Amino acid sequence: MQLINTLTILLAAAGTSLAAPAPTSSTTTTSIQIEERGSSTPLIDLWKNKSFLDLKFTGSGTLGTCFDLPSNFQNIASSGKARAGFRCTIWVKKNCQGTGFSFNEKPGSKSFPDWIDDKASSWKCVKDE
After folding, report:
1. Collapsed DSSP state (helix, strand, coil) of residue 20
2. The pTM is what?
3. Of 44, 68, 80, 129, which has fewest CB within 10 angstroms of its CB?
4. pLDDT by residue (tens digit) across 24-66?
5. Are residues 64 and 106 located together in one domain of the fold?
6. Which domain holds residue 23?
7. Which of 100, 84, 87 is nearest to 128 (CA)?
8. Does the keyword section mention Signal (predicted)?
9. β-pair partners for 57
């Protein structure tokens, strides 16, 4: 009986010594520092067809920075939504030049106006205020 009690105590002690240490506050601080440096964040979703259907592009980047659409998504977007808390603008020309069209998350734009439908070449997002 004494052997069983000794083994039980040893196993219990081994279990506590193998436990992982609690996370330190430096882990949280590192995450916050990355956020503050302007890490790439998903900001915009564009779809090839109206009503948020078919091929989808998700644009990630830094707020307030202009991005050209990738070559496989140039001049084909027909609907789009900004991610929650953002307002995005798409432009008919690269480098956010020319005429732009803006939308937010809700309701988004289920159908782009004819003048920009299948004509978007660049995008930029800012905080929606």
Report:
1. coil
2. 0.69
3. 129
4. 433 222 222 223 345 689 999 999 999 999 999 999 999 999 9
5. yes
6. 2-33
7. 87
8. yes
9. 46
